Amino acid sequence: MTFPPDLRGEAIGASDEIRSAHNSFARTDAFLAEESRNRASRDDEKEDVFHFVAYVPHEDGHVYELDGLRPGPIQIGKFESGNTNDMPWLTVARTAIQERIERFGA
């Protein structure tokens, strides 16, 4: 029997082994800096450092950032739909990723 998606996420998030493996690749100082800036906007005092950030296109023509430390999706830019084989939204996502890397870069 397989878990529904929400329970799969809970099971993965509760796994010390997966958390340890994930955090071994993370630069926690960058996440901690961002976390301290956003602490006032969150209710929970105990925050986890590990999380994922995804960039996804939406049919409304915008790219959204999904950040596990944010309360909801963040619209980061608009893209023009082109050929179905094109992925113009990647240009918007790439720019956001590069800005994030520069902001937290060494």
Overall outline: globular
Can you tell me the residue ranges where pLDDT is under 50 for at least 5 consecutive residues? Answer: none
Could you spell the SSE succession in H and E letters?
A: HHHEEEH
> What fraction of the residues are assigned to beta strands by DSSP?
15-25%
Number of contiguous helices: 4
Layout of SSEs?
Blueprint: H1 5-13, H2 16-23, H3 28-38, E1 53-57, E2 62-67, E3 74-78, H4 89-104
Antiparallel strand pairs: 1-2, 2-3
Describe the structure.
With 106 residues, the chain is of the alpha+beta class. Helices cover 42% and strands 15% of the residues. The protein has helices at residues 5-13, 16-23, 28-38, 89-104; strands at 53-57, 62-67, 74-78. The chain has a three-stranded antiparallel sheet with strand order 1-2-3, with helices on one face. The radius of gyration is 16 Å and the shape is globular. The relative contact order is 0.11.
Q: Nutshell version of this structure?
A:
The chain is α+β, with helices and mostly antiparallel strands and 106 residues long. It contains 4 helices and 3 strands, in the order αααβββα. The mean pLDDT is 75.
Q: Which properties best describe this structure?
A:
106 residues; alpha+beta; three-stranded antiparallel beta sheet; 3 strands; globular
